[in-house]
Amino acid sequence: MKKYTQVGTDIESVRQKNADSGMSYNEVKEYLAKTTGGRGTAQYSNTNVEEVKQQLKSGPHTEEE
């Protein structure tokens, strides 16, 4: 049995179209932040800022560390 809204919209059809439409606006912002180091997208970053600060204070590092 299909489910419809009060105005007659097929709910499952809308859900399927949304699923097929690609990334949402917020998913795109998150992807760009994680892959390009975008500015103003810190909320999507998985970088530990304090760890980076400590590494910068302690001097140069090699790739193996």
Short description:
This protein has 65 residues and is an all-alpha fold.
Describe the structure.
With 65 residues, the chain is an all-alpha fold. It has helices spanning 11-20, 25-36, 49-58. The model has no long low-confidence stretch (mean pLDDT 81).
- The number of helical runs is 3
Structural class: mainly alpha
Question: Gyration radius, to the nearest Å?
Answer: 21 Å
The fraction of residues assigned to DSSP E strands is under 5%
Uncertain runs are none
Largest sheet: none
Order of helices and strands: HHH
Helix content: 40-55%
Shape: rod-shaped
State mean pLDDT (0 to 100 scale). 81
Q: How many strands? A: 0
Distance between the termini: 59 Å
Attribute tags:
3 helices, 49% helix
Secondary structure blueprint with pairings:
Layout: H1 11-20, H2 25-36, H3 49-58
